[in-house]
Amino acid sequence: MALRNIRVQGDPVLNKICKPVKAVNGRTLELIDDMLETMYEANGVGLAAPQVGILKRIVVIDVGEGPLVMINPEIIEASGSQTGDEGCLSIPGKAACVTRPNYVKARFYDEEMNLCEVEGEELLARAICHELDHLDGHLYVEKAEGPIHEVVYSEEEIDEEEA
Question: Which residues participate in catalysis according to the annotation?
């Protein structure tokens, strides 16, 4: 496993539409492992392949329930709404208010190319929507409902991250 460089806003790769994965091979599995390691190292809850410069329809998410790897994901159901601050590893130190569905159901393939479904509410629903937007070349700032602002962590939060 290796840490990958996270592309930041302004990098043209973040505005491109990703290609579907036709088959999983050793390179795909290595990419997934690298994406998970990179996401955890950056204290993120999700990461999409274009954020590390790869135009494939792959996302990894972990909202505290263990890693979720989604290949060729699509949202097949959504309902409700939630509005709150959202950030992105590709726009470090910033956040903005975004409204997303409060519930989503997504269909995707796992690392063995088995067809799967996942249902998510609240943070998981937000993360799925956010990461799938990356696969179509969109960043959350396009949906921002107010100004983009600096994120300032309290000393307690910093201490918890270092523990």
Answer: 131
